[in-house]
Write a structure and sequence with these properties.
Blueprint lengths: L8 H15 E2 L2 E2 L1 H12 L30 H7 L1 H6 L5 H15 L33 H11 L3 H8 L6 E2 L8 E2 L10 H8 L3 E2 L8 E2 L6 E2 L1 H8 L1 H12 L1 H16 L19 H17 L5
Antiparallel strand pairs: 1-2, 3-4, 5-6, 6-7
């Protein structure tokens, strides 16, 4: 078949359509897991030596593949294998990050600008050191250490933590258990509202320390609670709980930056505003987001 330019919008839309079919179907909705895959593939970056990040898709190889922080992500890599089969010229690095970007939109979040052009590593020699991803059992100091290493600031840390508005924890994967919000397939600011408004007490159970609300249906991790107890972080939690628009804007900016950590300049989205969608496209996306949420299923 003729080679298609990576920045051809019709081609990108075709790939996004195939990603959508892979993520949301009768088997369930794996959008939250797609976000986690893209985040974990990108969040290994270190600005100190320019290693890690989404370029290379090194999670296909040990030791990154076996990192406990990535438990369960083989499920999402398998789901996206169908997209790779349909688009063999696309790198895994592009597919994983584009799926993570598009999953936010499918869930009703802001449009995430993404550029293709990443290449894949041929082996595990470029795998970053294990242990670079956040440890959910830690506190504010640990969060700053991990995110500052990637080049983020306090506002970015809180905004990116807002991805917990999607999905849930699984005891068999992370050791933790439960969702953060009542609608784990919907992107909104309810994570921040819950964090501020509900009373969180340590859950009495046989697992690691996590917190539960009075109804025993929602959970928060120690790193989540750190956003509320740290005065600087809390300022942003309050701002995002108050205004979903402010949250969406901060999340979009930080998440776009996250997805191209460790990548060359040609895959970094421009700062130019994205062209407005046509009314039909926008309505279609909203309709699809509502249908996707109605499909339910276990998000992650």
């Amino acid at each position: 078949k003729p080679h298609v330019a990576m920045d051809d919008q019709m081609y990108v839309n075709a790939v996004k359509s195939d990603i959508r079919k892979a993520l949301v179907n009768q088997k369930g909705n794996s959008c939250p897991l797609a976000v986690r895959l893209a985040w974990h593939a990108s969040g290994t970056y270190s600005k100190h030596d320019d290693t890690g990040g989404s370029y290379g898709a090194t999670m296909r190889f040990p030791p990154e593949k076996e990192d406990g922080a990535n438990a369960g992500l083989d499920i999402e890599r398998d789901i996206l294998q169908e997209v790779k089969r349909q688009h063999p010229d696309l790198s895994y690095a592009d597919i994983w990050t584009l799926a993570g970007a598009h999953a936010i939109e499918i869930a009703g979040g802001p449009p995430i600008e993404h550029k293709l052009g990443r290449t894949d590593a041929q082996d595990g020699s470029a795998c970053p050191a294990v242990g670079r991803l956040p440890d959910a059992s830690q506190g504010a100091e640990h969060l700053r250490e991990v995110f500052y290493r990637m080049g983020f600031n306090d506002e970015d840390i809180v905004a990116l933590s807002g991805a917990h508005t999607l999905g849930r924890c699984h005891k068999t994967r992370s050791g933790f258990d439960g969702p953060w919000t009542h609608e784990p397939l919907k992107f909104d600011n309810s994570y921040f509202k819950n964090l501020l408004d509900l009373e969180w007490k340590p859950r009495q159970w046989d697992g690691p320390l996590q917190y539960e609300d009075p109804s025993h249906t929602l959970m928060m991790l120690p790193t989540d609670l750190a956003l509320k107890t740290d005065p600087k972080f809390k300022e942003y939690v309050v701002a995002f709980a108050k205004s979903e628009t402010v949250f969406r804007s901060a999340f979009k900016r930080a998440y776009e930056q996250l997805l191209c950590l460790g990548c060359p300049a040609h895959v970094v989205p421009s700062a130019a505003p994205v062209a407005m969608q046509s009314r039909e496209e926008a309505d279609g996306s909203l309709e699809f987001a509502q249908a996707a949420r109605a499909a339910g299923g276990d998000p992650a």
